[in-house]
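Q: I'm building a small set of examples for a reading group on sequence design. Run inverse folding on the following structure and report the sequence directly after it, with nothing in between.
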């Protein structure tokens, strides 16, 4: 009788153990994300510092100022939201630039053309302009639709996709590295990194339509895709229709290692002794000389202002 009880106890224990093993998830299913759990929703009109170097500010939500409700950034050092389009290195709106010298100027270029924004020995950045002709003006209304960045032997493209009607929940950004598309999950903080010697990273700062790209030791650029709203169209006379909302990029550049021979619409303003050619103080200071900055395509380094690959040594 005692032997039968012992045998029964062993059998029960074995069955219990098997049931526990069957209920445990496998290693592959544990690694897979639960599709029923939604990603972190980025509150509209709010941003946060993602740099872990600023522990007192890291990942704290900040509300954007009313003057830039959808395009602000966080100054992690002060832990305050600021309008990114007002900082040196900004390229926004109907291209409105903030130079490295702090001066604001406009450069209109031409629609459907590419212009050299920055050109240095080992860094060249072109911008592709889209736009439409104003019926009461002699120039085009223009916006930067994409940027092509050439460094070392690599090419990085960040572009806004064409859209008729704007929906901020849909991702309108297109990114490629050396002509290979980069696919980022649509949630804030998702990141892609290159496997080449130079560290190249692209990460989302919001669930959709906002990224930061950085090449270690060279540059950092934030890019936000925005439309022309009906209000903007009415105020500025853009005459935007339902066929195209002219989605474009609002950009913020930071350079870590450019020379004093740098050129380009924006690049030249980083020279030590640069004197602005735009009429600073005017209601709309405009930089001319578009012919100097025209490039044959988004990745061409053939503009007259090009310094790319010239290995200029200052004495």
């Amino acid at each position: 009788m005692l032997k039968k009880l012992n045998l029964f106890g062993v059998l029960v224990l074995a069955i219990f153990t098997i049931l526990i093993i069957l209920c445990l998830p496998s290693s592959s299913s544990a690694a897979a994300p639960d599709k029923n759990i939604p990603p972190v929703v980025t509150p509209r009109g709010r941003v946060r510092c993602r740099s872990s170097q600023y522990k007192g500010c890291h990942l704290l939500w900040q509300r954007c100022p009313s003057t830039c409700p959808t395009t602000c950034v966080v100054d992690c050092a002060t832990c305050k939201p600021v309008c990114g389009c007002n900082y040196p290195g900004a390229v926004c709106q109907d291209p409105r630039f903030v130079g490295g010298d702090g001066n604001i100027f406009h450069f209109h270029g031409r629609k459907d053309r590419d212009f050299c924004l920055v050109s240095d020995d080992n860094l060249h950045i072109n911008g592709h302009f889209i736009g439409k002709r104003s019926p009461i003006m002699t120039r085009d209304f223009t916006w930067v639709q994409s940027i092509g960045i050439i460094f070392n032997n690599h090419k990085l493209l960040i572009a806004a996709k064409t859209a008729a009607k704007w929906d901020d929940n849909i991702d309108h950004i297109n990114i490629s590295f050396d002509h290979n598309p980069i696919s980022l999950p649509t949630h804030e903080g998702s990141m892609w990194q290159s496997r080449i010697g130079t560290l190249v990273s692209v990460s989302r700062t919001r669930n959709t339509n906002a990224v930061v790209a950085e090449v270690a030791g060279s540059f950092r650029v934030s890019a936000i895709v925005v439309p022309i709203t009906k209000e903007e169209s009415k105020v500025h006379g853009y005459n935007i229709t339902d066929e195209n909302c002219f989605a474009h990029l609002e950009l913020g550049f930071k350079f870590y290692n450019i020379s004093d021979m740098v050129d380009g619409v924006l690049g030249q303003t980083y020279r030590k002794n640069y004197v602005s050619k735009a009429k600073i103080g005017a209601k709309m200071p405009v930089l001319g000389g578009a012919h100097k900055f025209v490039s044959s395509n988004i990745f061409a380094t053939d503009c007259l202002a090009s310094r790319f690959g010239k290995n200029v040594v200052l004495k």
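The CA atoms of residues 36 and 132 lie 44 Å apart.
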